[in-house]
Amino acid sequence: KQEVTQIPAALSVPEGENLVLNCSFTDSAIYNLQWFRQDPGKGLTSLLLIQSSQREQTSGRLNASLDKSSGRSTLYIAASQPGDSATYLCAASMTTDSWGKLQFGAGTQVVVTP
Amino acid sequence: DAGVIQSPRHEVTEMGQEVTLRCKPISGHDYLFWYRQTMMRGLELLIYFNNNVPIDDSGMPEDRFSAKMPNASFSTLKIQPSEPRDSAVYFCASSSLTLEQYFGPGTRLTVT
Known about the structure:
heterodimer; A: 114 residues; mainly beta; six-stranded mixed beta sheet; five-stranded antiparallel beta sheet; 11 strands; 0% helix; globular; B: 112 residues; seven-stranded mixed beta sheet; four-stranded antiparallel beta sheet
């Protein structure tokens, strides 16, 4: 069974510093990997989706990479701002599983201090 | 687009009562997902539909849970009878063929 792990569980950085969030998965037969943001008491907001054939995706200050051979994805957030404070979750869908079924990590809670 | 709409946003009920959660997906999306989020277990997929047909319900915890999608713009998740351990936030999400899932704001369920 696919296991998705996010370490660390929590992270605090000063404003302006670059954020690096890690996601690891045990089975490299992934279909795609998606990064989400969740604010307290709110739903999940999709940030980036990387297809298995892609190595990275970029949107504004966000860049996500995917290395299937090592079982890792990394989300980079450049020049962090207090508004980036949230919990970030990664989720993988497997080619060996029901299409569309996502396996979520537990998330990394980020605090950006002014 | 208004995004995925869920109702109610909060539900408090007594053990043994029936609970119905509702979801309206984004127009044009043909996949709909129901998730449950708790501190202990994180986010769990309960069931998902494609073109109103249930595809995978392996995450539905037990027979007390049922989900329907009578048309492309409406789905329900029903718990009967409810138990305190069902207390959680229930999310609905939808996607198109791009597979990128868009989540609703969730329904916070408390069973006393």
